[in-house]
Amino acid sequence: MIVLQTLGTRGDVQPFLALACGLRDAGLPVRLATAPRFQAAIEAEGLAFAPLPGDLLELIDTPQGRAAIAGRHRLLATLRLLRGRGPMFRALLEAQWQAAQGASLLVCHPKALGGAHIAERLSIPCFVALPLPALAPTRAFPSPLLPFAELGPLNRASHALMLRAADRLARVPLRDWRARRLGLPPAGRGAAPAGVLQAYSPALLPRPADWDARVHVTGAWVMPARPWSPPAALAAFLAAGPPPVYLGFGSLPAEDAARMGALVAEALALAGQRGVLATGWGGLALAAPRPGLHVIEEAPHGWLFPRMAAVVHHGGAGTTDAGLRAGRPSVLCPVFGDQPFWGRRVQALGAGPAPIPYRALTAPRLAAAIREAVGHPAFAAAAAQLAARMAEEDGVAEAIRILRPTL
């Protein structure tokens, strides 16, 4: 049994769901462990599900969590938010242990903190996986979790610093749990990873030369295409005029979703564009209908994005991949984490204008970026070239090729 464990927002879960579907289709037994809010989507694919506590998601959606994400010092605020959450971490570790029973191989997101320790106890291989290049130090660029484009000789050290900081978050609960539950020496770091799977497209970022053979860039883990029929209102809106601009900030909650909804609606009007606004999990809201603007909760990006003139989003790894895979210019409005990194990559690849930090968004500034993205053919041409390269990749198949020899 291959057990996948992940935690976080939809962007953290959907790649693992895509991998689970690929493993199932390859005839391999698989179980996906994550928060209960994703259970229905997982079981709809006919996959075995195991629950991990959703406390982290609930914490992010509190006023304190929203403030931490939207604030000026987001990393420090998030670390402070998580400090003292020993019971939350202990519950997660116990759920991971239960979900791993019967496993012969683990594939874990870094937020599934116990993966390496469970692998040590069960004497099975464990791969760590993430859709961004944050798990293996390199001299080529700084950690994508830091807001720096270049740190020169400190690039490699910045990766080590972020990995060490992540280790310290739950160090005390982990030590206690290793000894009490697993019967292992408290100070251990768990089994060394059998490999590192970085599930993003090499078309977006070349593989650094200083990564060793255990570090793999597989390509993005994309859900298999499913037939999907749009609601009648969305289909009618798309048919009623030229391709609109997509605007959505994914799973990220906003402190004032109505204000952000009004801002992006005004930006569209100033840019002279129609738009599709995706409310997601609360990042955007619209108080009243606006001409030329259609509101949806969500729609499959693989279906929707090819029908857009451009996509405006927060810069999550999955949404960035989907926009470029659709061959559409992208305007990124990064909030935190790896999002500024992907904003710089999109700009460097010529597939969109300079990113606009979420905190610096104004209607005139966003309108100017939308006009630039839609009006300059060079952006569309670069995005189309990237899409052609990405279409040749099969990240799920590549991941399965790497995993098979360890079974």
Q: Overview of this structure, please?
A:
The protein is an alpha/beta fold. It has 17 helices and 12 strands. It has helices spanning 10-25, 39-44, 55-60, 63-70, 74-82, 86-99, 115-122, 155-169, 171-182, 232-239, 257-271, 301-304, 317-325, 339-348, 363-375, 377-391, 395-403, and strands at 2-5, 30-34, 48-51, 105-108, 126-130, 195-198, 215-217, 245-248, 275-278, 293-296, 310-313, 330-332. A 7-stranded parallel beta sheet has the order 3-2-1-4-5-6-7, sandwiched between helices. Strands 10-9-8-11-12 form a 5-stranded parallel beta sheet, sandwiched between helices. The protein folds into 2 domains: 2-198, Rossmann fold (3-Layer(aba) Sandwich), CATH 3.40.50.2000; 232-391, Glycogen Phosphorylase B (Rossmann fold, 3-Layer(aba) Sandwich), CATH 3.40.50.2000. It is globular. Strand 8, helix 11 and strand 9 form a beta-alpha-beta unit. Residues 2-135 form the Glycosyltransferase family 28 N-terminal domain. It holds the Pfam family EryCIII-like_C.
Poorly predicted sequence stretches spanning 5 or more consecutive residues: none
Task: Categorize the overall geometry.
Answer: globular
Report strand order across the widest sheet: 3-2-1-4-5-6-7
Kindly report the CATH topology of the largest domain: Rossmann fold
Q: Averaged pLDDT, please?
A: 90
What CATH architecture label of the largest domain applies?
Answer: 3-Layer(aba) Sandwich
Kindly estimate the percentage of residues that lie in beta strands according to DSSP.
5-15%
Order of helices and strands: EHEHEHHHHEHEHHEEHEHEEHEHEHHHH
| Tally of distinct domains | 2
Structural class: alpha/beta
Number of helices: 17
Q: How can the largest sheet be summarized?
A: 7 strands, parallel
CATH superfamily of the largest domain: Glycogen Phosphorylase B
Number of strands: 12
